[in-house]
Every structure is written in C-alpha cells, then in structure tokens.
Amino acid sequence: MNFTVLVIGCEEIVNKVMEFKHLYQQFTFVPYIDQPNQPFSEDVNEYHAIVLANPLKFSKELLTTIEHIPVFTLAVSESTLYSSLFKCSYEYVPEQKGHYTISVDAMNLAHSSISQELSGKGIIFTEYKEGGRDQVLMHHVELWNRRHAQCVVTCDPFIKGQLEALSIPVHLIVPTHKCIKQSLNHVTEEVRQYVIQGKVETSEKIRLENPSAFQLMQDLKVSTKTLHRLQCLCYSNGKNTITASELAKGFSITLRSARRILSNLEYHRIATVIGEEQSNKRGRPRAIYRIDLQPFQEEILSNCSYH
What we know:
This is Transcriptional regulator. This protein has 307 residues and is of the alpha/beta class. The chain has helices at residues 11-18, 60-65, 78-91, 113-118, 133-145, 157-165, 177-197, 211-220, 224-237, 244-251, 255-267, 294-297, and strands at residues 3-9, 27-33, 49-52, 71-73, 102-106, 123-127, 151-154, 170-172, 206-208, 241-242, 271-277, 286-291, 304-306. It is built from 12 helices and 13 strands. The strands form 4 sheets. Strands 2-1-3-4 form a 4-stranded parallel β-sheet, with helices on one face. It has a 4-stranded parallel β-sheet with strand order 6-5-7-8, with helices on both faces. The protein starts with a strand and ends with a strand.
C-alpha cells in the first residue's frame, strides 16, 4: 500500500524535507509551497496525512480545512537554532571587523536553555508568539536602524522576506537533517498504524531525556504519556476537538479525571473551549475543547522515544 503525505511550508524548508523522500519507499511526499496572503487551494482528501514544515502556526482557514486529516509538525530542536546561529556567524561578514550582534526570534524561548546560555553574548533574543509577527518584524528593523544588531535569525519565512526586501542580512531557522529524519520516521510509522488499523496506537513506553523538555513537562504538570495519548486520540478521532466524556472513554478513565485533565490543559492554553453539545436527556451542556499541541511538539513530543 502506498501512503501519500502533503508537506506544507515555505520553499526552503519544504525542499529540504523532500531530500529525504527516497528513504521511504511506501510513501509519496507531495510538496506544497505556502504563499503569504494566498488561500489554501489543495484538496486534502487525496492525502493520508499532512506535515507542516514551518515551525509556526498556520491560518485558521487552513487548519479548519485539514481538521479531519492527521497533522504532524516538523520538529525543531535547540540544535537547529545553534546551527542557524553558526551559519549566520560565518556567512555574515560585517563592514567593520570586531564585535557584532545578532537579533534572533524563536518560539518557546522561555523554556529553552539556549536563550539563557547565549543571551547578552552578542545575541538579542525575542520570543515569537502567535499574532505577534508585526511586532517582531518592527523590533528587528528598529534594532537594525539603531545599529544595535547587524543581522537577523528568524523562524518566520514572511519576516525573512520582508527583511530581505530592506537589504537586512537575515537567515531562516531551518530544521537540521537529523530533526527532519526523526520527524519523518515518526510520521511514517504513525500513518501506517492510522491507515491500516484505523487509529494511532500508543507506545507502551515513552522516554523523555531532554532537560529543557523535562522542565517544561514539570511546569505543565501533565505526563509525557498523557500528551502523547491525547495526540493519538485526536488522530484516531480525525479531529482536534474533544469533550470530557470522549476523553474519559478514550483514556478509559473516570469523567472526573478527564475533566481535571482538560481543566489543567485549558490553564496552559493547550485546550480551549470553543462550543458545547447538549444531550437530548437532561443535564448540563458538555463543553467542546479544541486541542492544540503544536507549541509543545518541538520541545516535548519531538524529544520522546517510543518503545
């Protein structure tokens, strides 16, 4: 059986992912270059899964379109950021020899050791948050104009394009070969199980050996296995919305436990109430939660090993 996977993202990252397509004989990877301010036009019903190649959130319109298809986010580790900084440092040649500063934006910096280790050492870090693109772009431009930074490293392809138009030296954070291969290995295995068995199985043992990811896990007060099982349950249901009763049934736990899990996930903005469903019988309406694991895909789920 042949599996078809749509790879969505900017040209630079998608092309790098496509370099690995020959390693997976049962899979056909189809590139789709996402263009800013242009509607998504691909028919997703032709695909078994989708890989979002950019380390950013996509438009709500796109996410609504692909809601019933298993969606995977390309993992981006700290080594990816180190690699991008290294490339920037040796490719950029300042006009005057000596010290120069790099302005960097990336997601989840608050839980990253790299920002703590390198902050103030010729690098200015800015947290990239959803909806903050314009502010981050203006911040980079301001630092450049004031000569507080001599080049930029960004996780946003749109920002890269805007800075290039202003002739500001800029590099895009691109996943390393190791990150891409690990992600595709996970994607191909999960898709096989999803398509053949009609669901995504949860591994018996999950190991997390990344210090920053472990610290984030402790801050969330949710186990790694719970997040992984939740991810698998969403894939199995073919959607990223769930009620407490559906979670209880899927996890084989009590309704009270399910509500406690969702309450904690809501506190950490992993779950968001977007509606309710009412039974024909008497009782309170059931809250419908939208589950968004993408912000934690890089730091936690991509650093797990499954046995």
